[in-house]
Amino acid sequence: MLFLEIGLVFIILVVGLLGSFFPILPGPIISFFGFVFLHFGTRFEFESPIFSISIALLFTIIVSFADFFLQIFGVKKMGGGKNAMWGVTIGAFIGLVFSFSIISLILGPVIGGFIGSLLDLRLELKKSKKTTIFLKSFGVSLGAFFGFFLGVCIKFLFSFIIFLVSIFHIINYIDF
Known about the structure:
Radius of gyration: 20 Å
Strand content: under 5%
Number of strands: 0
Distance between the termini: 13 Å
């Protein structure tokens, strides 16, 4: 029974870690639920559960909002709009679905942001030079991608810290 409890916590926390990279899975939220399950669903109770769970919840909320706002910040900083942000998200998802290589993780959001930025700038495309529009779209796509990438890094760091805290908590309180 003990190994089942530890195994279930481990699976939830690993899914939370993977959720940091997959746009569909909310990694920090899943990691938080794994942390809460560690206290309420296993025999490894925290000494001060209200404090521990409150702090984890606070950081879960902060990380989740930071991920969203970093993408918006990257798009807005480089002059892009909603379509560029959607393009980065869709491009990241397509890059993950079709290949798990690092190249697809980079090219998917960049190409998606570029196409989304072109959709944002379609009115200017008729009035301005095409070269400047393409350069501006490329800059917007890179800014959106860096915001997306920074958000992924922050989500992974948070999920990894929750993973480590949970594992150390189990190791400190287990009786072999």
